[in-house]
Amino acid sequence: MIHTDKVIVVEGKYDAIKLESVVDATIITTDGFGIYKDVEKQNLLCTLAEKRGLIILTDSDSAGFMIRNFIGSKVPEECITNVYIPDIYGKEKRKDKPGAEGKLGVEGIPASVLEDAFHRAGVDTDKTLERGREITRLDLYEDGFLGGVNSKARRLELLHALGMPERMSTNALVKVINILVTYDEYKKLIER
Q1: Long-range pairs for 72-79 at CB < 8 Å and ≥24 separation?
Q2: Closest by alpha carbon to 115, among 30, 21, 15?
Q3: CA angle at residue 135 from 40 to 129, to 5 degrees?
Q4: Are 18 and 60 in contact, with CB atoms under 8 Å apart?
Q5: Could you count the other beta carbons within 10 Å of the beta carbon of residue 7?
Q6: What would you measure as the largest C-alpha separation in the chain, in angstroms?
Q7: Which helix (H) or strand (E) holds 97?
């Protein structure tokens, strides 16, 4: 399995599911063209790019390249690693017919081909950052951000302080907060 501390950006949830068997990393979806209107997610990607760097892995069709170029226009070039999949024609198992261009998307590409694409982009050479203790759901609970009186309001304040979208799920919050801040930085932040 490939490990990277960079955040991988893919188009949809089925792409993310496929990648979880190939790469040990944080994976964010653009929800296809939804990224064009989702300013909060655009801002999140910019923040994650500055902190860790982004790996963009989109389908090899025209829609995938449009999304890749859109993200590239929002994020500094030096923060982006592009991973490209080859044009393989076919149909994903869950679909009734091939896509408009007849190419397999990330979800339909064999794991070995995905691994090769990451290796070609030099992603397998990344080193793990020394981050110390991770922030967990239990930490969020104990600090009043989950399951308590006013926990939702407190969580919204935390999300705002971190510059994250307010609709972010708790599981996504745990993943992203560990990218943005260390445990010690988190503790200092919540003391304020």
Answers
A1: 74/42, 74/45, 74/46, 75/45, 75/46, 75/49, 76/49, 76/50, 79/49, 79/50, 79/53, 79/54
A2: 21
A3: 85
A4: no
A5: 24
A6: 54
A7: none
The DSSP code for 134 is: P
* Residue-by-residue pLDDT tens, the chain, 192 positions: 899 999 999 999 999 999 999 999 999 999 999 999 999 999 999 999 999 999 999 998 999 999 999 999 999 999 999 999 988 889 998 888 888 888 999 999 999 999 988 988 888 754 445 667 889 999 999 999 999 899 999 998 888 887 666 767 788 788 878 877 889 999 998 887
- Helix H or strand E encompassing 82: strand 80-82
Residues contacting residue 160 through CB under 8 Å, at least 6 positions apart: 166
**In angstroms, what CA-CA distances link 84 with 60, 87, 97, 122, 192?**
7, 9, 23, 12, 43
Q: What are phi and psi of 113, to 5 degrees?
A: -70, -40
User: CA 123, CA 83: separation in Å to the nearest integer?
Assistant: 9
